[in-house]
Write a structure and sequence with these properties.
325 residues, alpha/beta, seven-stranded parallel sheet, three-stranded mixed sheet, 12 helices, 14 strands
């Protein structure tokens, strides 16, 4: 199979490319490297079936050529991270909606199946935990930049489903829940790599808010295997699936777990949301996926528990620091 991965030099995209190549597929990655990194795919460059196109998919001529030459598309290009979303809402909206719209238009012309990487953020402020794919979404006020990312990704989903219903374009949508693992950066507000880097330096781990908010984390390998299986399946087109972990943990407990696993002398320091992200920032108290639908579709079962997932991040961070030193 010939695959195109948009945003393929990013954290999840690079692991996806690696897995597809390992099973004998051809992979083309298009990435403007605004948040992706050449370092993420450097080890793939010598592979005969790998190609990196370091350009923007906003180029319509380029996008048409890339989609025409592939069998399926994994669309992962997006603005990522709470910090980027809060500081650059225009970029967030234009990138997420504009790129997805352009891709679906071209894919629709060729009938090329598309995987849309969405996010648990679309559930917004809903309190109907665990979140079901057919549950209501509850957004905050449009004056809160925090919700621009969630709204833009929800619009991506609406558009993708519309292409399926109106034009019979095979699309599959996956809502990833807090995917973590090797190569993820803490630069855009990602909590686990930030905690790990602070713990390895024996610095206080900064927990935003009061630390009672809970999340379920997903190892990137579990997320990638789910994405591939959903595209390989014959009856998933036009559907939305949660992809997540099964262990719910608070941010305070997560910080303590990282400290224990790194054998760090770090303490935990609490930083108010308005100090971290600006006045009026809102966060959801719990984010837990219902996984019955994806279990029924592909037999999904996470292979990595939380400790194994955290250890993979710790080991990668330690190895990277040793290489730099």
């Amino acid at each position: 199979m010939r695959y195109l991965i948009t945003g393929g030099a990013g954290f999840i995209g690079s692991h996806l490319a690696e897995h597809l190549l390992s099973r004998g597929d051809q992979v083309t990655v298009v990435d403007d490297l605004s948040t992706g990194s050449l370092q993420n795919v450097r080890h793939l460059e010598q592979h005969h079936a790998f190609r990196l196109v370091a350009e923007s998919m906003a180029n319509p001529t380029l996008l048409e050529r890339l989609v025409r030459d592939c069998d399926q598309v994994f669309h992962l290009a997006a603005a990522v991270g709470v910090q980027l979303v809060v500081t650059s809402p225009v970029h967030t909206i234009e990138t997420n909606v504009g790129c997805t719209s352009a891709l679906l238009d071209v894919a629709g012309a060729f009938g090329t199946p598309v995987f849309i990487a969405s996010t648990s953020e679309v559930y917004g402020k809903s309190t109907a935990v665990p979140f079901r794919e057919d549950g209501d979404i509850v957004m905050g006020a449009t004056s809160r930049a925090r919700w621009s990312y969630a709204c833009s990704k929800a619009l991506d989903e609406f558009l993708a489903v519309a292409y399926w219903r109106e034009r019979q374009l095979p699309v599959v949508i996956a809502r990833f829940f807090n995917t973590i693992g090797p190569r993820q950066t803490g630069r855009y507000g990602m909590v686990v790599p930030r905690f790990v880097e602070q713990a390895l330096r024996n610095e206080p781990l900064t927990v935003y808010g009061d630390g009672t908010q809970t999340r379920c984390f997903t190892h990137v390998h579990d997320a990638v295997h789910a994405a591939i299986a959903l595209m390989d399946a014959t009856d998933t087109a036009g559907e939305v699936f949660n992809v997540g972990g099964t262990e719910e943990i608070s941010m305070t407990e997560l910080a303590q777990r990282v400290i224990a696993l790194t054998e760090s002398s770090s303490s935990v320091r609490y930083v108010p949301f308005n100090e971290a992200y600006g006045e009026g920032f809102e966060d959801m108290p719990r984010r837990v996926p219902a996984l019955e639908k994806i279990r029924a579709a592909i037999g999904y079962a996470p292979a990595y528990n939380l400790d194994a997932t955290l250890r993979s991040v710790i080991e990668h961070t330690q190895a990277r620091s040793a290489a730099v030193a």
